[in-house]
Design a protein that fits this description.
alpha+beta; seven-stranded antiparallel sheet; 4 helices; 13 strands; 30% strand
């Protein structure tokens, strides 16, 4: 076979191979087009991936403290009879000329107040402020679950503004106590109580200062050192607990300064 013949056969085979390749590529393109950026297939329900719950992060240390202590915080409603003061005018000699010693008799009226307290024993011992139960020996105690009891005031210490109340109940939730001596300004502070009649209200802030004197707080007749906090305290919070970040009681919410904002004392 001559050289020209062999060269012709090789070129013919090369042309045939190229034609087959082009035709094959066109055929495959029509049968299975290239898929670009195809969205991922959705798995059947039986093969779906498990859903991870997202709620665990919402229960922070404040919520945990409230869940722990909240059931042991109570509302205390008190009532006492208060006599109206005799007007100064009736004490003057001019009026005594007409009335003699028979000056008008002061009328008595019922004065009601609301405060907070917390349970310290399962058999119904409560702590609150002395000024919450001042002038009465019986109070109404309402638990967080709505149960009400008649409470008896067992003892009052006006010097430290602390009172002890007893209700007849068993298996009650109680608080745990922390140590106020180890507190440091800047720590978290949580207050629970019934300000303005709004039961089980929670406020949070920090320990602003320690060792405030009674005269600095504005109650010079007391003999106690106070914890200062910026956790909101309002009328009705009195007697409720001040908690640390662990949910331990470190003080009894007692006083506010009328001429200040964001200052409370326990």
């Amino acid at each position: 076979m001559g050289l020209l013949t062999r060269l012709g056969i090789s070129l013919g085979l090369l042309a045939l191979g190229g034609t087959v390749g082009v035709l094959g590529n066109q055929y495959l393109s029509r049968k299975a087009p290239l898929e670009v950026n195809k969205p991922p297939a959705i798995l059947p329900a039986s093969l779906s991936l498990p859903v991870i719950p997202q709620n665990d992060g919402n229960v922070n240390f404040i919520a945990q403290a409230v869940q722990k202590v909240g059931p042991a915080v109570v509302r205390i409603d008190s009532a006492r009879e208060v006599a109206d003061q005799i007007p100064e005018e009736f004490k003057q000699p001019f009026f005594r000329r007409f009335f003699g010693n028979e000056v008008p008799i002061p009328r008595e009226h019922l004065e009601r107040g609301t405060g907070s307290g917390f349970i310290i024993s399962t058999d119904g011992l409560l702590l609150t402020n002395a000024h919450v139960v001042e002038g009465t020996t019986q109070v109404k105690v309402t638990l967080k679950n709505g149960q009400t009891y008649q409470g008896k005031v067992l003892g009052v210490d006006n010097m430290t503004d602390v009172a002890l109340v007893k209700i007849e109940a068993e298996n009650l939730p109680t608080v745990t106590f922390g140590k106020a001596e180890t507190l440091t300004p800047g720590e978290w502070a949580i207050a629970i109580g019934n300000p303005l009649g709004l039961d089980n209200t929670v406020t949070v802030g920090i320990i602003s200062a320690l060792g405030r004197t009674s005269s600095e707080v504005g109650v010079p007749d007391k003999r106690v050192r106070f914890i200062q906090t910026d956790a909101a305290i309002n009328p009705g919070n009195s007697g409720g607990p001040l908690l640390n970040a662990k949910g331990e009681v470190i003080g009894i919410n007692t006083a506010i300064r009328a001429d200040a904002q964001g200052l409370g004392f326990a």
